[in-house]
């Protein structure tokens, strides 16, 4: 059966701004189609449909989340709701047999994540968080380079950053700075990417210790606006650091140093261009005589893609769901385990911050 036959039928649960990007991604993916939109009011659903030029004849509009979850035509839901609502609606979606593509951070802590994932397992539905950068072909190419022990060697240090300077309106009104909606703030939003990138580099192995650094800044409600932390792997003797912030200039950096090589790029979350992305790689670099230069320059590796990374995420998620729906295969738990390890480290950073920057053993 061709991939674009009997596509996975998506519903979007919530009309957040990021939902517009995923709406487009569903349209671009060859094995997915959008069939329903739900908001807390029918007017908001209609506004979203109009803004995204969605035909009312092809996409159903609902004024409550329950109505969409009760629609038997919907195979899967994309859920860009505030983090505090993830467990309630994630569990309900799973109980209704809807496969779940969930915005990050997945939950406020790992116990909440486990409650949600248990519901997915009990009901045989696929889980994936919406970290789009994993699905870009550049990511696979970088893993190939780092896996070459001759060229790269063993990973010794990692640094990641994710930051942007929020406007005064953002810092006052955005859900990501509201303790009752997204109490993890910059740690949950931007820090999720940093921690995920570090764990991806370490093949999802949890660090031995996690220590937040005494640089945390909060708003008047106690929500984190900026923080940083270090992670250490005792067996590998590998150190990682990250910085995440709502109050500094735009960064999306990942730098990895191995015993034989190094890798770096500055747009790991959102590539500079949609149809191609690059990273720099150096192997065997040394200083020339008199230390007046280098013997090699970094090599720029360009990786093209036919689909934007968010569409490739939808394509991969839909491929997994089609296997479950059409062939009866079991859900792939790899993505859930990736989310869980990220959540565990995020929790450890938060615990370290709350306990005066003490070391947290994993």
From TrEMBL:
Transmembrane segments: none
Name listed for the protein in its UniProt record: Gfo/Idh/MocA-like oxidoreductase N-terminal domain-containing protein
Domain called Gfo/Idh/MocA-like oxidoreductase N-terminal: residue spans: 8-128
Family of the protein in this entry: Belongs to the Gfo/Idh/MocA family.
InterPro entries according to UniProt: Gfo/Idh/MocA-like_OxRdtase_N (IPR000683), GFO_IDH_MocA-like_dom (IPR055170), NAD(P)-bd_dom_sf (IPR036291)
Domain GFO/IDH/MocA-like oxidoreductase: 141-263
GO molecular function, one term: nucleotide binding
């Amino acid at each position: 059966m061709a991939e674009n036959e009997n596509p996975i039928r998506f519903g979007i649960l919530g009309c957040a701004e990021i939902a517009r990007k995923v709406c487009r991604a569903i349209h671009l993916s060859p094995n997915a189609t959008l069939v329903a939109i739900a908001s807390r009011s029918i007017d908001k659903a209609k506004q979203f449909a109009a803004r995204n030029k969605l035909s009312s004849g092809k996409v159903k509009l609902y004024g409550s989340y329950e109505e969409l979850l009760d629609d038997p035509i919907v195979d899967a839901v994309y859920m860009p709701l505030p983090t505090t609502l993830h467990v309630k609606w994630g569990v309900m979606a799973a109980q209704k047999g809807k496969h779940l593509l969930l915005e990050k951070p997945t939950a406020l802590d790992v116990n909440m994540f486990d409650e949600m994932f248990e519901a997915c397992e009990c009901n045989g539905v696929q889980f994936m968080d919406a970290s789009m950068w994993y699905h870009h072909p550049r990511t696979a190419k970088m893993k190939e380079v780092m896996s070459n022990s001759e060229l790269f060697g063993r990973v010794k240090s990692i640094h990641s950053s994710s930051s942007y300077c929020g406007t005064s309106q953002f810092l006052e009104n955005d859900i990501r700075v509201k303790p009752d909606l997204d109490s993890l703030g910059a740690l949950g939003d931007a820090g999720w990417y940093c921690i995920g990138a570090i764990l991806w580099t370490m093949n999802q192995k949890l660090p031995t210790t996690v220590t937040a650094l005494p640089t945390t800044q909060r708003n008047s409600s106690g929500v984190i606006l900026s923080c940083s932390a270090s992670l250490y792997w005792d067996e590998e003797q590998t150190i990682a650091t990250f910085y995440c912030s709502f109050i500094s200039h735009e960064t999306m950096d990942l730098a990895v140093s191995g015993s034989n090589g190094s890798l770096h790029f500055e747009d790991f979350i959102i590539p500079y261009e949609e149809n191609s992305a690059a990273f720099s790689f150096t192997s065997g670099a040394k200083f020339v005589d008199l230390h007046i230069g280098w013997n090699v320059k970094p090599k720029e590796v360009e990786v093209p893609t036919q689909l934007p990374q968010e569409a490739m995420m939808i394509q991969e998620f839909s491929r997994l769901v089609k296997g479950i729906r059409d062939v009866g295969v079991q859900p792939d738990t790899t993505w859930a385990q990736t989310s869980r390890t990220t959540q565990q480290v995020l929790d450890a950073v938060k615990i370290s911050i709350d306990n005066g920057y003490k070391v947290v053993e994993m």
